[in-house]
Amino acid sequence: MDWLFFSFDELSGIVYSMDGYTDGGIYLTKEKQYLVVNDFSVEYLNWAYNPAGQYYVPIEVSVTANTDSGILEVAGKAKGFQQMRLGSPEPYYNVADIRLSGTFTYSNGTATALNGSGWDQIILR
Predict the structure, then answer these.
(1) Are 36 and 22 in contact (CB under 8 A)?
(2) Is the pTM of this model over 0.85?
């Protein structure tokens, strides 16, 4: 399962994928417009090893999300991650404090650079 939240001054949103089901949405702050994500891709560019659990966790991620109003491209690099349980016998991995950069290119070709303020990623394995 991939569950990625992102927040910028210009927009915020989420993309979600689990067992073939995908969903996502983007809210354009200035326009006060909600966009449904038609499709998206998540690429894991770099991983960190967690010796306590003997597994790898992605720490560098790239997301491209397509909407009817434009295309969002976001890249993020984590400063760290943590394993959590919260009452579940199976752990999940929270990748917090990722530094963001990105652009939103409107359907008319106008591109807006995004000022990132946060990202949170939860990965269940």
Answers:
(1) no
(2) no
